[in-house]
Write a structure and sequence with these properties.
Layout lengths: L2 E3 L12 E2 L10 E4 L9 H4 L4 H5 L9 H10 L4 H13 L4 E3 L1 H4 L5 H17 L2 E7 L9 H6 L8 H7 L4 E6 L6 E5 L4 H8 L8 H4 L4 H8 L9 H4 L18 H13 L16 E3 L23 H7 L34 E2 L11 E3 L2 E11 L9 E13 L2 E11 L11 E5 L3 E4 L8 E5 L5
Parallel strand pairs: 3-4, 3-5, 5-6, 8-15, 14-16
Antiparallel strand pairs: 1-2, 1-4, 6-7, 9-12, 10-11, 11-12, 11-16, 12-13, 13-14, 13-15
Length: 453
């Protein structure tokens, strides 16, 4: 870990003194959180010169490599931002500050991987985090609340961990001209932050947010963006306390790997409580299959899956004998392809399985092996279409002490020969979750193949 020394320096004479890697004895430090723009001050700008670089300026002109370099740094658009952060840290009594653009040598893939895997911990250990919100006016401005809640800082993937991990976060507005303006801290601004991020006020702290469900944490990242596609996953590693190697170029597979790492350390089945990111979540009530079935009609086709929107759609595909023709549902796996799939599940809580029913997951060549409680469902007018409601051991509390279980639709796979598809299932109707799933004490071991992406 590298740190910048904050001074003391005379105004206008600031230097970028980069203290090379500390070992186990890391001093107290402040840390900067900001959104990147043009002209950032980088590690190449502030690193110590090589002997060759020094020799280039060993002449009688009085110029040194450092003086030439410092002059070029002052021409960077982000120069004033870094200097202001150093001054603020020095004013608050911190000898060192960590700035990501300056303190990570991104030309080294090994160092970059180590930094990204350690970043949550570095923010967590900082004495204070200065969060810079470009263009946000002071608290006295008429449009302060609107500008604060819509700040670009709240839309970026990396700033999620920078909001939650530190012990103390102080927000500053950075006008186009003039000095920084202190806006408040995470405690005093918790209401506005909660409105902007969808994170409950009581969860805006690393000591408490770690107890939230996987679905809740994923929902916090659902509307955030990153420049690199893989960073959608990498920026969440610290929040879920997992580590994994960086493989830029793998695309959405990075998010799949993230979920696989989470499953290795957690039995929270809300990780499967996602919906297709292209469709809004629609909850459907279910009832178990019964032996007596009324004659199918447009009004009771979905009597056992009381799903009004689908019921209306099925009314248009009934033939003269009132036997519904159901479309083939495309099978999918249990893992989401993006945090956007968790946009609508921010209130899902984990009920957790009883100790005697705790199960483990394992990724195999047949797919994800998992034991779930399955309740058979049946659609009127069909005898060969089996579909099940899988209870995920999580749900929503609609009233005090009234907890509704959440589940997903599973269907035996149809794309494999019968000899090889024993206990092989697909997730279907991925745009929907089921609430009010019946309790079922029987667990069934199944395999769910993940589609390649």
């Amino acid at each position: 870990m590298r740190l910048l020394r904050t001074g003391p320096y005379e105004p206008g004479c600031e230097k970028f003194e980069l203290i090379e890697k500390f070992g186990l004895q890391i001093p107290n430090y402040a840390i900067l959180s900001h959104t990147w723009g043009e002209g950032e001050v980088t590690y190449e700008h502030v690193r110590a010169p090589t002997a060759f670089e020094r020799s280039l300026y060993s002449n009688d002109s009085g110029a040194t490599y450092e003086s030439i370099r410092d002059q070029s740094v002052r021409e960077c658009e982000a120069y004033s931002k870094v200097v202001a952060a150093m001054r603020q840290a020095a004013s608050d009594g911190h000898e060192y500050i960590w700035v990501d653009t300056c303190c990570i040598d991104k030309s080294s893939s090994a160092e970059l991987s180590e930094a990204i895997n350690s970043m949550y911990k570095w923010y967590e250990r900082a004495e204070v985090c200065y969060a810079i919100l470009d263009g946000v006016p002071g608290p006295d401005a008429a449009n302060f609340e609107t500008e604060f809640k819509t700040s670009r800082w709240f839309t970026r993937g990396w700033t999620l961990q920078e909001l939650l991990a530190p012990m103390h976060v102080v927000f500053f507005g950075r006008p186009l001209t003039g000095p920084w303006i202190m806006l408040g801290d995470r405690i005093s601004l918790c209401g506005l932050i909660s409105t902007s991020t969808g994170i409950a006020e009581e969860d805006l702290d690393s000591r408490y947010c770690q107890s939230c469900t996987v679905a809740q944490k994923m929902s916090w990242a659902a509307k955030r963006n990153t420049t690199r596609e893989e960073d959608v996953a990498y920026c969440l590693m610290g929040l879920f306390s997992v580590n994994m190697p960086l493989l830029y170029g793998e695309g959405p597979r990075a998010f799949m790997r993230l979920q696989e790492e989470i499953m290795k350390i957690s039995d929270d089945q809300s990780i499967f409580a996602w919906t297709s990111p292209d469709n809004q979540t629609i909850f459907a009530r279910t009832s178990p299959e019964t032996k007596d079935a009324a004659e199918p009609s447009p009004d009771n086709v979905f009597e056992y899956i009381n799903d009004p929107d689908v019921k209306a759609a099925m009314g248009s595909v009934l033939d003269s004998t009132h036997t519904p023709r159901f479309p083939e549902w495309i099978g999918n796996g249990l893992l989401a392809t993006s945090p956007k799939a968790f946009s609508h599940v921010g209130k899902i809580m984990s009920k957790g399985p009883p100790p005697d029913r705790a199960t483990s997951y394992q990724m195999t060549n047949r797919g994800l092996r998992i034991s779930l409680s399955l309740t058979p469902l049946r659609l009127f007018g069909t005898r060969d279409r089996k579909i099940f409601a899988a209870n995920l051991g999580c749900g929503v509390e609609i009233e005090r002490h009234q907890f509704l279980q959440v589940g997903i639709y599973l269907q035996p796979t149809r794309r494999l020969p019968s000899a090889t598809n024993r206990n092989q299932f697909d997730r279907v109707r991925c745009d929907k979750l089921i609430w009010g799933v019946p309790e079922n004490n029987k667990l069934t071991e199944i395999y769910v193949q993940q589609r390649r992406i």
